[in-house]
Amino acid sequence: MAQGDVRIEHPNRKSRRSRTTRAIVVALLLVSDIMLVIVTVGGWEKIQGAKPVQLAYIVIYLLLAFYIGRWRSGLLPVAAAFAIILLIFAGIGGPAWFVRDKEGFADPLLDESIIGLLTLILIPLQVLLIAFAAKGFSQKWGVEVEHRVGSPRLT
Questions:
Q1: Which of 83, 105, 123, 129 is the most exposed place for a label (fewest CB within 10 A)?
Q2: Residue 61 and residue 55: Cα distance in Å, rounded?
Q3: Which residues neighbour 153 within 8 Å (Cβ) at sequence distance 6 or greater?
């Protein structure tokens, strides 16, 4: 059988729920990425040792958003794993920014309380990202059905 005789279809990607879940996961990744950029730029001078990690997260979240937007369901557990790690970092790092909001500390580009608040807002965003990535993975976007050209389609 020639390569052109078979057509591959992904039936689980057609439902409104699957498309909505994909859009929400991509949106959560992008919003998290924007907040990471703001926190990174705003606190660049005072971030000690975490600069490479934050830059890597920004790039990774952009790549995850791009590929999940292209229905790469295998990356949903990866997105959830990165969200868990970022949740831990935000939970530890967020309160530390509020401690710096005292006399004697050098001021970052943005106010410490703003950076701390944005960092703490990342926590519920990551919880939502984990939940929706798990939901998307359970929707089995990667299921493929082969159809021979000329045969009737199953719906």
A1: 105
A2: 10
A3: 9, 147
